[in-house]
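Hi W.,

Here's what went into the run:
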Amino acid sequence: MSNAVLSIQKLEAGYGSKAVVRDFSLDVAAGEFVSLLGPSGSGKSSVLRAIAGFLPAMGGRILLEGRDITGETPERRNVGIVFQNYALFPTMTAFENIAFALRVAKRPQAEVEKRVRDMATLSGIDEQLTRNPAEMSGGQQQRVAIARALVTGSRVLLFDEPLSNLDAKVRVTMRREIKRMQREVGFTAIFVTHDQEDALTMSDRIVVLNGGRAEQIGHGRTLYRQPATPFICQFIGASNELSPPVARRLLGAKGEGRSFVRLEDVLIAENGGGGARATVSHIEFLGSHSRVYMIVEGDTISAMLLGDDLPDVGSEVWVSIRPGAVHVFGGTCL
Ligand SMILES: Nc1ncnc2c1ncn2[C@@H]1O[C@H](COP(=O)(O)OP(=O)(O)O)[C@@H](O)[C@H]1O
Ligand SMILES: [Mg+2]
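Here's what came out:
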């Protein structure tokens, strides 16, 4: 793709002779926000390290703005990186942390001052510039790390789980802050996370990694509504896998294959009206909704219910599946 700012083509990368990233291809447009989402060990950080140049490619190519950087040293790639642990220099002030690369490049003091202050304003840390990392909150440290990644003029930013060490409230704020900065600066982002909510809320596209391969690439809504594999179905959102007896009972399914139903597509009725008889085994209260577990045909199936109008634990209910809401893999569609 000619307008891709970053083009990864059939990348193979790993440690020793073992490839942990395999046949990985991705074109990223300028200004796009792409998340790499996957469980621990699925190869997310390895893809990022290969883009940054810390992990050599064993095969394939990486192009940055049309330039082949596959064999280039990290310093010459001009990508910025933001890590989970911030990786700030502990004995330096926020100002000097942000200024570091400019000092190395021996930029004149007036230019350093201006660029660091501009980035501090963008990142919302004007007041923190004289502090050391230990005197800042996690969110503030992460802002310093982002300012430091942007100050050299890198327009491709790689984020490796930057929100994982932040508490839930700060995490939500930082998601919005990163998106705001992206809008203001227009940088391109490759954002590694194991948190589907990070990926769903921030991304133009999500790449789901499984065992070092891209299992599906698309907008969050596409991955959610049209999962390509059982893995995607279970990793994005929450699904019940119906055992064959339950699938037969609830769907009249006769064919082979694995059937999945999202929790919100499991319908519960107190009396009659089709479906199967189920016994409520327990209920988890989650604030805005509750998860109701039921036993059907000896198997557990769960539903997500809004509000407080819930069946009693131990009671019998009727359970059915919203029409058209089943994802079937490896068999004939219903
Ligand atoms: N330095 C390393 N040496 C050897 N194997 C590694 C190293 N770093 C990661 N791996 C292996 O590579 C695979 C992918 O790891 P990684 O890219 O860190 O996954 P993720 O970031 O998705 O958790 C895992 O099986 C992991 O054990
Ligand atoms: Mg990682």
